[in-house]
Sequence to fold (558 residues):
Amino acid sequence: MKPAPSIIFFTVASGAGYGLLFWLGVLKPLGLLPASTLFGATAAIIALVLITAGLCSSLLHLGRPERAWRALSQWRTSWLSREGIAAVLTFPPAVVFLIALAHGETALMLPAGLLSAVGAAVTVYCTGMIYASLKPVKEWHHPMVAPGYLLFASFSGASLLAMLAIFWGGGFFPALVAAALGMAALFFKRAYWASVDATPAASTRESATGLGFIGKVRPLESPHTESNYLLREMAFRVGRVHAAKLRIIALLLGFALPALLFCVAIIVGGAAAMAFGLLAAASAVAGLLVERWLIFAEATHTVALYYPTQR
Amino acid sequence: MTSLPSPAPGAKKLGLVIDLDTCVGCHACATNCKEWNTSGHMAPLPDQRPYSAAQEGVWFNRVHAYEAGDGDEGRTVHFPRSCLHCETPACVTVCPTGASYKRAEDGIVLVNTDMCIGCQLCAWACPYGARELDEDQGVMKKCTLCVDRIYNETIPEDRRVPACVSTCPANARHFGDLGDPNSDVSKLVAERGGYELMPEMGYQPVNRYLPPRKASSLVKTAPKEAGPLPSQITNPLLRWMDKVLSR
Fold:
């Protein structure tokens, strides 16, 4: 599948924003974060900016962005529609939560924070299910895809929260959460790749053409000499050549290095911890961009079976 | 509405039956499809850079060619690919706007291009590559089963079939109600062992493909060498022997 920059930015930015909102909504009312109102307001604003920027970016992927409001209508069957509704419904409690944080309204913080956290989790789950529900793409139609989106969003959000909390001198608990989630994400992603690599595709050229009863099926002639929409969108192969190296980069940069740096930040403390925290969060985001690019670049669509193998 | 209609018992399931035994790969179906539909229900079918390098465009029907099998059993098969008007089309249920829909009355899958936002999720959801993006309008386009021909009372009744069917010079394309077991197309499918593509995906396509027939057994044995005609044998003795032995 073609890795569209607008969707990669959307899922990484919104994922991190929702993850940040989730952990802020859960940990702040529990008193596990710095008490400063400025810290809370800053974290909530960053979360909302990331979420909004990501959602705006997703509109760039549409052929008719001005009709985007129509996408809120088909929640009965469409995960994309459900994602849109969940995203819209998450905004009111998140804004109330931001106001409560800015004014130190602790009574309001708990319900608004928890509602925001629920909204964030539901939205990211819907994003994951958009991909997980697509049968023609074997790498996406997999039970670990939707949980993966949740795990990676919560990890990147926790990383941003830990970085901010370290700046405000109270980063012990969120840094511990981020480091633990980073290690969990590392093993989860490795297990996902092992599972996907070991699972043969359900469909073959033989089943796609129904000619398997004669023997092995080989493409002889394409219907067209030039490219077309289907080939550009769904037979993208450029990234596969470097996939093995990019997987290692994603694992190290995205998960291992941030986990390590957060542990170091907890140990060293002080001003040095801020530098380590910043590096850790930046590394997590960079690694997730690589991971998200691979999600598309490595995904194979059954329509490619009809065409000669692309290079 | 992107919820699928619950089919009434005995409801029509209009679709195509494509005979891979007789298809000669001439692309007439694809060409006539483009010709009709670029001014039809889902018009236009735009082309990008039509007169320069890397030209491409929207087509509802594309004709592939494959080699299947090896040796004496191996053969070349021409393979037209278009929307199969599935009974459980995920292209419809993933649509967030309700622009994609399946008609309850005849099962045709259509796009309302006035509501489509061009998110392209339907193209991702279709295993068969039946949906293409109109890059000029930013909306998805697909085969309409020539809904604007098959019910069109301004054209003679015997021509109320999809453009691809009407033009096929090899009579390899058949159109009809696959929900009626007594229809001509259903009988043809039963007789020839028509099959669906990628049944493992669970989309329950309506269209059927008729498999290439087995190569004739005559082809496998070496052709008999043709002897000379009796009139060409000048020696009378040999002509008499040929006459006796030929009995």
The longest helix of chain A spans residues 270-297. The beta strands of chain A are 217-221.
